[in-house]
Amino acid sequence: MKVVERFRRFSWRHEFLLAALLIVLLAVAGFVKPEFLNLRSQLLLSRHLWEFALLALPMTLIILSGGIDLSVGSALGMCAVAFGATYAASGSLVLSCLVCLLTGAAGGMINGWLISRLRIHPLIVTLATYAAFRGLAEGFSQGASYSQFGEGFSQLARGMWWGVPIPAFVFGLWAAACAAFLSWTPGGRYLAAMGYNEQAARFSGVAVDRIKFLLYTFSGLMAGLAAVIYVSRFDTAKADAGTGFELDVITAVVVGGTSIAGGRGNIGGTVLGLLLIHETRQFVSRQWQVEELKSIVIGLLLIGSLLLNRFWHVRSRG
Prior knowledge:
- By secondary structure, the chain is mainly α.
- The protein has helices at about 1-10, 15-30, 40-45, 50-65, 70-90, 95-115, 120-140, 150-160, 165-185, 185-195, 200-205, 210-235, 245-255, 265-290, 290-315, and strands at about 145, 160, 165, 235.
- The longest helix has 27 residues, at about 210-235.
């Protein structure tokens, strides 16, 4: 009983359970399909992870603060088209990357302004821009795709530094920065306070509107960065890039322990949630090759995570 009580009070219990589940999954996968754990296989499979991972970082901050962003997948598609159109007009990869990032930041600023200044609920705003961003991408590109950006550019997504994929370094830097922000700065505490009780945070002097604006701008910027990696990986920029990404990103964040109601969450849990979903999806896909089964398993993971979150929250209050 003492062990159970200590675990109940352990602040990282959800992350501990996620790590245990990940270890069990890898052990089973290694037993059933030994080549799955091969380093080369894992490096190749990791290419499917990094765009989701980058989008999950600002999503964690936004959900922690009590918000939501349903437009990240559409924003990625809009940024991809901006990248392709700029390259077609200028032939400059540097300018194309810059326009891509600025387009994402501009989209995030629109979300942030509507949410923070007009006080429209984030669900409504981002549901509207979810459709608007995709429509802009499709209308501007007229359904055409842009490609042939050069072999050198494709190395951004496929290349290695010291045996590690380049996007992994990019994600690691941003993840470390977000984790440090949450853990060691007043801003991180403000986000949690906003998630617990936004009105109380306002009365406490927290600049809630400014923080919301910056959060959604950051989300748009990361959508632009994810778009650069996406285009590099596929060597194609088109309007349907990022379709369905928003649900997978939100799932990873919630599985990682961030409360959908706000107030609780951390980057470490999100990273574990990303890895657990990624490894589960790839193992199920390679073992059974049934697309529907992947969705069922991920759905069960999400439900299980929500139940665990609810269980620990109720126990900690009791």
